[in-house]
Design a protein that fits this description.
By secondary structure, this protein is an alpha/beta fold. It is built from nine helices and ten strands. The strands form three sheets. Strands 7-6-8-5-9 form a five-stranded mixed sheet. Strands 2-1-3 form a three-stranded parallel sheet, with helices on one face. The chain has a two-stranded antiparallel ribbon with strand order 4-10.
Length: about 300
């Protein structure tokens, strides 16, 4: 769902160069084809990823500090409460923690605004989980784990809006869109749909939803599970029109640049994929939100 603002990219690139961030650490800083999320695909030994072995890599010894934004939304979290282990991202965070040897009581949740999560500089968390899409620009100043969810964008509109039934690629160019500042959804509108009118930009997703309800915009774009939840549970009279083909976008856990903990986080994610945990959590929390038609932008 998320992307850097163009101005921020340039500023971050300068900061990254001046800080020499590329030399922070070899672990987690690769963006090779075998580790597309910006992490590393090299496996860590079992001994190096034990709870005791990673204590020196933690923000607070004895605890795994996990950050996210406030508020948080279904189906990624439930009841705006990250600590309850419900919702896809909350459940994934606790599953990764368990693989690293942390009990639920040893997981501490921290608040981190979305826009500041991928800013350069030290972090007050071990990893952030907040539907943060990997991008090459972001990976200059932060480290991403491998993917924990592959993303498709989707279109939400009011049921009686023309776009609900008229959405060929040519049709799509003629509507007014709106989206949250700094998101990959906004980037998708500009780069893939390429509307004739400049999309309206809002500070929060709540602002975008309000704009749709008040007909300031014809449609919004967001990741498919969020789009389906908005249309089914939040905006009366709205519909998720369809989703768009994958562009290779995916969510990764975000860590401070060069944090060696990414090696063990990637190992944990690999285990959760191979043992079926991620598939089980996807079916539990996201299945109802992903079986939808696909249209071309």
């Amino acid at each position: 769902m998320r992307q850097l603002r163009a101005a921020a990219v340039a500023a971050i690139a300068v900061l990254a160069a001046s800080a020499g961030l590329a030399g922070c650490a070899s672990e987690g800083s690769s963006s090779s084809s075998t580790a597309p999320a910006g992490g590393t695909s090299s496996s860590a030994s079992a001994a190096s990823c034990t709870n005791s072995a990673i204590q020196g890599q933690l923000f607070a010894k004895g605890h795994l500090t996990v950050a996210t934004d406030k508020p948080v939304y279904p189906p990624w979290f439930v009841n705006n409460e990250p600590t309850n282990g419900q919702g896809y991202e909350s459940a994934v965070a606790y599953a990764v923690a368990a693989q690293l040897g942390f009990s639920k009581s040893q997981v501490t949740w921290a608040y981190e605004p979305f826009d500041s999560s991928y800013a350069p500089g030290p972090k007050k968390f071990d990893f952030d989980i907040n539907e943060i899409s990997y991008s090459a620009a972001r990976a200059q100043v932060v480290t991403f784990s491998d993917s924990y969810y592959d993303v498709q964008q989707a279109l939400v509109a009011l049921k009686n809006s023309p776009i609900a039934t008229k959405h060929t690629p040519a049709d799509l160019k003629g509507y007014v869109y709106g989206d949250q500042v700094g998101t990959t959804s906004l980037q998708f509108i500009n780069s893939q749909i390429q509307p004739t009118q400049t999309p309206k930009v809002f500070e929060t997703l709540n602002d975008v939803k309000q704009a749709l309800q008040t007909k300031q915009i014809a449609a919004l774009v967001t990741d498919t599970p969020t789009a389906q939840y908005i249309s089914s549970s939040e905006i009366s009279g709205s519909v998720m029109v369809a989703q768009f083909p994958s562009t290779g976008e995916h969510y990764g856990l975000l860590l401070a640049k060069g944090n060696p903990l990414v090696t063990c986080v990637n190992k944990a994610l690999a285990t959760l994929k191979s043992n079926g945990t991620l598939a089980k959590l996807t079916a539990q929390y996201l299945k109802l939100y992903t079986s939808v038609p696909t249209i071309k932008p």
